Amino acid sequence: MRFERLELNGDAGRLRIERERGSRKIWIDSSLHRPKRGKEADGWVLWELPNNATDKRILKLAKELQSRTDGKAGSADRIDEFFREMKRFIY
Q1: Which residues make beta-bridge pairs with 7?
Q2: What percent of the chain has pLDDT over 70?
């Protein structure tokens, strides 16, 4: 059994991690609940992460996603939660 979609809803935004059936590539969709005035275009971002992404790239993205979802920079443990979920979808 493999996960195909995970959705998280935080104080500042929503995050969806998804993989098409039969693909090891994942898509990450992040939207902010209340984007800053004049920065509405930054309110929604979509990333595509290939199955050969390095841990360094995944960790960098995990930091950004955690911050967008929670509304503030998180602890190493909190960022690690995002990192582990993303890794679980790739492998």
Answers
A1: 16
A2: 93
**pTM reported for the whole predicted model:** 0.78
The answer to whether the beta carbons of residues 30 and 68 sit under 8 Å apart is yes
Full DSSP string of the chain? ----EEEEE-SSEEEEEEE-TT---EEEEEEESSPPTT-GGGGEEEEEE-TT--HHHHHHHHHHHHHHHHSS---HHHHHHHHHHHHHHH-
Residue 76 sits at the vertex; the CA angle it makes with 27 and 55, to the nearest 5 degrees, is: 45
CA distance 67 to 65: 5
Given a contact cutoff of 8 angstroms between Cβ atoms, the answer to whether 15 and 7 are in contact is yes
pLDDT in tens, 39-48: 766 788 888 8
